[in-house]
Design a protein that fits this description.
binds zinc ion, alpha/beta, 4-stranded parallel sheet, single chain, 457 residues, 9-stranded mixed sheet
Length: 457
């Protein structure tokens, strides 16, 4: 019999399991250990012992640490980490911001896609993220979804890339320049190609591909419908941007004669296998539609603040039973990619809109873990329970940020914003605050060289 690979995490000050027991964080266990075997959680509890054979189990001390499930990011455009804080886009609304950035993005190629993805993925990992989606909707100069899939495989992130697309360029009344849009037939063919090449539907999968036309204002009604048919035929999930701000609603009413929720429903874009980014402007009927149909939402609070889009009705969505996860969104509209800070921001924004008791630190952490896992269709992730994937974030509570805290579980009120250690599929990809799977300083240097080249073009 093949030997199991096993790790024992010992003596955590507190473990928030996010399991189905008790309150919103599940069982909260003090002085707790976690045993990992072959990428899966084998045991959670006090006083666990390593395997009998000497040295068979790696032991990691977690005294003074809070342990949570790895966080799940449901919306990103990793390539945008190469266009952070671009001066012309710093203070613009969504549509103007896009028009500033499109010409820069049109100069990207495979190298830019790979390096920017690794930077974005490393940043997510350091902030406690163990599973991320990505939405890549432009493919200039020979770029492919495969470039980002390779980046994720090399760094060891659990990855749910989506094959995005834009098909309506400026000359057809769309927003993007013609050079960044593709023919719809080619888009659908490439969706099939990447699904066949990379999609793994199995439990514990490290790569699941989705289908993701960019937004109602950059693709046709036909493509939205055909993409939904294709996704369901292949058994993969579907993702797009929806109801992001007032301009977006106005566009929908003018061009389609209906609100975004109606547009989505008419074209097959509601259901358990669909999640939409933003949804800042959903009205009560649309919230009911999403709850009824099991449609998920990727809530991106920092991006919504940055672009002045508004405050998404997350409290109302959650109360109605809508699945909500968090997204950092692309690094051109955040400009950070720190998921634990995003969780804090989601808590704060709901309080701005609805009062101090509108969202607790524990609930926001639940959304960041279980919430995201539900949105991405991953019941195997997002909780620390026997049989679930060993995606684990270890937060050192002995530093300045938590000094004086009375409640370690209130990580989002007082706690570190980077992990000490991070496990994905049982592999320790961050150790004592450093990414172990790639040479990060080399990747950052490559990224800065590429950014300089883009800025000089
Ligand atoms: Zn986005």
């Amino acid at each position: 019999m093949a030997k199991t690979h096993s790790t024992l995490i010992k003596n955590a000050q507190l473990v928030l399991t996010m399991n189905d027991a008790g309150g919103i964080t599940g069982d909260e266990i003090a002085n707790c250990d976690i045993l990992i075997e072959d990428g899966v959680i084998a045991s959670v509890g006090q006083g666990l012992a390593p395997q009998a054979e000497e040295g068979a189990t790696e032991v990691l001390d977690a005294a003074g640490c809070l342990i949570t499930p790895g966080l799940v990011n449901t919306h990103h455009h990793l390539y945008q980490s190469l266009t952070r804080a671009v001066p012309g886009g710093q203070d613009a609304l969504l549509f103007g911001w896009l028009q500033t950035l499109y010409p820069i993005w049109s100069r990207f190629g495979p190298e830019e896609m790979y390096v920017s993805a690794q930077v974005g993925l490393a940043e997510l990992m350091l902030s406690g993220c163990t599973t991320t989606s990505d939405h890549l909707y432009l493919y200039p100069n020979g770029s492919k979804l495969d470039d980002t899939i390779a980046a994720a495989a090399d760094i060891g992130m659990r990855f749910q890339p989506t094959r995005g697309s834009m098909s309506i360029g400026e000359s057809d009344g769309g927003l993007p320049p013609d050079s960044l849009v593709e023919k719809e037939k080619a888009i659908l063919e490439d969706c099939i190609r990447v699904i066949d090449a990379h999609h793994d539907a199995s439990e514990g999968s490290m790569c699941r591909v989705g289908v993701a036309p960019c937004s109602p204002f950059s693709v046709s009604r036909d493509l939205m419908r055909d993409a939904a048919i294709l996704a369901r035929d292949k058994g993969v999930m579907m993702h797009t941007h929806l109801a992001e701000n007032d301009e977006d609603i106005a566009y929908s009413l003018e061009k389609f004669g209906c609100r975004p929720g109606q547009y989505a429903e008419d074209l097959g874009w509601t259901g358990d296998d669909v999640w939409h980014a933003h949804c800042v402007k959903l009205d009560g009927q649309e919230i009911d539609l999403f709850a009824r149909s099991g449609t998920g939402v990727a809530h991106c609070p920092c991006s919504n603040c940055r672009l002045g889009s508004g405050i998404a009705p997350v409290r109302a969505m959650r109360d109605a039973g809508v699945k909500v996860g968090l997204g950092v969104d692309g690094s051109a509209s955040n400009d950070a990619g720190n998921l634990v800070l995003e969780a804090r921001q989601s808590m704060l924004l709901q309080r701005v809109a609805n009062g101090a008791d509108a969202m607790s630190a524990r609930e926001a952490l639940h959304i960041a873990t279980r919430g995201g896992a539900a949105v991405l269709g991953r019941p195997d992730c997002g909780q620390l329970a026997v049989g679930k994937r060993a995606d684990i974030a270890i937060w050192d509570m002995s530093g300045i940020e938590a000094a004086g805290s009375w409640d370690a579980a209130a990580l989002l009120l007082a706690g570190p914003t980077q992990v000490r250690d991070l496990f994905i599929e049982g592999r320790r990809v961050v150790a004592t605050g450093q990414v172990t799977s790639i040479d990060l300083s080399n990747v950052i240097a490559r990224q800065n060289t590429l950014a300089l080249k883009l800025s000089e073009a």
